[in-house]
Here is the input.
Amino acid sequence: MRIPLVQHSTRRRRARYRRVLWSGAEVLVTAGVLVLLLVVHQLWWTNREAREGAERRVEALERAWGAGGGAGPGTGMDAGEGAGPGIGDGSGSGPGDDDGGLDGGPGGGLGRPGGGARDSRPGGTPRSSQAYAVLRIPRLGLRVPVAEGTSRRDVLDKGYVGHYAGTQQPGRQGNFAVAGHRNTHGEPFRRLDRLRSGDEVEVETRNAAYTYVVGRILPRTSPRDTGVIRPVPRSLTRPAYGYDAPGRYLTLTTCTPEYTSRYRMVVWAVLVATRPRG
Here is the structure.
């Protein structure tokens, strides 16, 4: 009876295969753990961090208003005064980012750059990226700061709602338009699709509280549909949605569907009451 002999070269080849397979398995496990940590960071940690920061900012604003002071340098006047008439330059996030805003060209969202100069604007209007108002939506249990501009880094990723620079300020004739994340980084507009006609939205500044009532909802439009934030808002891609007459409007925009930035959802509201503070 012949006993098969195992050559040393065969043993070495099998040992190399085992090492390759083991190393590949380790790489896959490591990659899986890293992906899991990234998901946890995006879906949990960024939300927790942004929400806590946004809540602290709301409390700071309310303390400053209660003490009779402004929200910081450059806010001696109410935010509703001295607003500019036109749509601002392109800035903020580029296409593909869940920034909740509308693209105004190669630069991304329509708000002016939030990471640029921070000097006060003429008339005491807010500086770029400055939080100066509080947005409340009772149906959603939402209370969030409003900051000037739609920069991801300096506004939206902090869990704030960003005001489209170039649109009007709260309470003024025209369109006060804002954007917010729907997913991650505080996701203040996560449940925006739950709003219904007749729901109230309140915007509070240092000098006054403005109550808007939801009138119309555009479930989906293009990220480049800038008509929805014009002074008299009307969709350019879906003209059946919007308004025809001048008024005092509030526009809320965010990404849709969830976890994508392919389209934008738009909620419009109309000013029904103004209450002076103090």
